[in-house]
Design goal:
The complex is a heterodimer of chains A (238) and B (216). Chain A is α+β, with helices and mostly antiparallel strands. Chain A is 20% helix and 28% strand. Chain A has five helices and twelve strands. The longest helix of chain A has 17 residues. Chain B has one domain. Chain B has three helices and twelve strands; from the N terminus they run E-E-E-E-H-E-E-E-E-H-H-E-E-E-E. Chain B has a six-stranded antiparallel sheet. Chain B has a four-stranded antiparallel sheet with strand order 2-11-4-9, with helices on one face. Chain B has a two-stranded antiparallel ribbon with strand order 5-8. The chains are: A alpha+beta (238), B alpha+beta (216). Chains A and B meet through helix 1 and helix 5 of A and helix 1 and helix 2 of B. The complex binds zinc ion. The site of zinc ion has 7 residues of chain B, from loops. Zinc ion binds next to loops of chain B.
């Protein structure tokens, strides 16, 4: 497969853009301990967006790995996790905020530190939302690639340190034309006292068509029905 | 945060300034004044009250399931839980709870998600997201589908396993169980009394809830 596009997002960095359906978006952690915060919207109608509860309850999961799909609030598949070397990506830790970033790592600003100041997920995502004609009201729970948060029997949330080795990879296949927002900012539950983000390589490649025996399509009957809803949408759109 | 922090309310029904029954499948939307206390009563038991909150001064800042969970380091809501917006602002604090556990991971049912979870032929069935949208339209303050964030399911039990699974367990609620929360600032509340007929959590029998408000 030939890559069609790539970018490296440094610690604190962000990116947004529309990725057409039928692409592979491969994320690689270039150092150990990455966390990349991701939001997805239907590029044609951004009121349809990644929905954490619908995604988790349809697949009876509180973590994401190969076979899982990222569902929209309209019962469709925005993207599928087709490859994953890590086994657990976090849908419940959320994005970092300005207040949380200042509290954990100390006050930083551009005037003193130039581009080494510490960015927050909240601000990165807000900027990219506004760029797309959206706004703060469109902020919803994101996915944190490369992070693991587990919950014990009491419901207490535990961030798992050293979960992501250097070179960890996860690939999303776009099943719809998708507005993708990325923020390379820390997981808010990462207790590390130093700003821990590491560079993430993003490569976009052409995907093979979804076959009848596709792993994500057949992962659960719910996934099959969400794919059918997606195909029905594109049958109407043409 | 303990799993169940049972706190009974000192408030008396006769002192309430507002009292309404919301039948199964109906919705309710209203602004709370600072300091007001909202009580939702599960009249017959094992009903789900799907609920969203907005900062009425800045409705773009909606309830955030994740800011609420990470703020307390625990995924379940009970007395003591602070309900937060996306920006982290504290909207309300749960001040009484006789149910035991409230879910904020499972979200609302919708026609579209019903087709995914159950079968395509559930599409015509009544659902919480339709109730939310109709309430927003009647409320007439510019709320749109964009403002529908993942909500709280009061009286629902949706446990997460240490292995990363997610289950829908039998309700922990019972007839007359209630949850009560106090608004910090002016706060808009939006409730859908869930009409879900596909999920055994309510024994396939959606029932009414009662909503009361006290001035403090
Ligand atoms: Zn419902």
């Amino acid at each position: 497969m030939n890559g069609v596009w790539q970018i490296t997002i440094p610690a604190g960095g962000k990116w947004s853009g529309v990725v057409g359906r039928g692409r592979l978006v491969r994320f690689t952690a270039l150092e150990e301990g990455a966390n990349l915060t991701v939001l997805l919207y239907n590029a044609k109608d951004p009121s349809e967006r990644y929905n954490m509860p619908d995604t988790l309850k349809a697949q009876h999961t509180s973590h994401l790995t190969r076979g899982h799909v990222l569902m929209s609030d309209n019962g469709r598949v925005l993207a599928s996790l087709t490859e994953d070397t890590l086994g657990w990506h976090d849908p419940i830790g959320g994005y970092s905020t300005r207040a949380g970033t200042d509290a954990r790592y100390g006050l930083t600003n551009y005037q003193e530190l130039r581009n080494n100041w510490l960015r927050s997920g909240e601000e990165n995502l807000t900027v990219e939302l506004v760029r797309a004609g959206l706004g703060r009201r469109d902020l919803v729970p994101p996915v944190n690639l490369f992070s693991k948060i587990s919950c014990d029997e009491q419901g207490d949330m535990h961030f798992v340190p050293r979960h992501c080795p250097k070179g960890a990879q996860v690939t999303l296949r776009t099943e719809m034309d998708t507005l993708v927002l990325l923020s390379n900012t820390p997981n808010p539950m990462d207790p590390s006292p130093s700003y821990p983000s590491v560079p993430v390589l993003v490569e976009v490649l052409a995907a093979e068509p979804v076959n009848e025996d596709d792993y994500c399509l057949n992962f659960r009957p719910e996934n099959t029905r969400a794919f059918e809803n997606t195909w029905a949408y594109y049958a109407l759109l043409g | 945060m303990a799993v169940f922090n049972r706190v009974e309310s000192p408030r008396k029904i006769e002192d309430a300034v507002y009292d309404v029954i919301v039948p199964a499948g109906d919705g309710w939307m209203k602004e709370l004044e600072p300091g007001q206390v909202l009580r939702i009563v599960d009249l017959e038991g094992n009903q789900a009250a799907d609920t969203l909150f907005y900062d009425a001064e800045n409705p773009e800042d909606h309830y955030s399931a994740i800011a609420t969970m990470t703020g307390q380091g625990n995924i379940y809501l009970t007395a003591g839980s602070v309900l937060r917006t996306e920006s982290g602002k504290a909207l309300l604090t749960i001040v009484a709870d006789t149910c035991g556990r409230h879910d904020t991971l499972g979200g609302a049912c919708s026609a579209q998600s019903n087709t995914v979870r159950y079968s395509h032929d559930t599409l015509p069935m009544h659902n919480c997201r339709d109730t939310f949208l109709l309430q927003m339209a009647k409320f007439d303050k510019g709320y749109l589908k964009r403002d529908l964030a993942p909500n709280i399911n009061f009286f629902m039990n949706v446990p997460v396993t240490p292995e990363g699974g997610l289950k829908f367990d039998d309700g922990v609620s019972s007839p007359g169980a209630y949850v009560e929360m106090q608004a910090h600032g002016r706060t808009t509340a939006l409730v859908s009394n869930c009409p879900q007929l596909n999920n055994p959590c309510n024994a396939y029998n959606p029932t009414p809830i009662r909503i009361l408000i006290w001035d403090n």
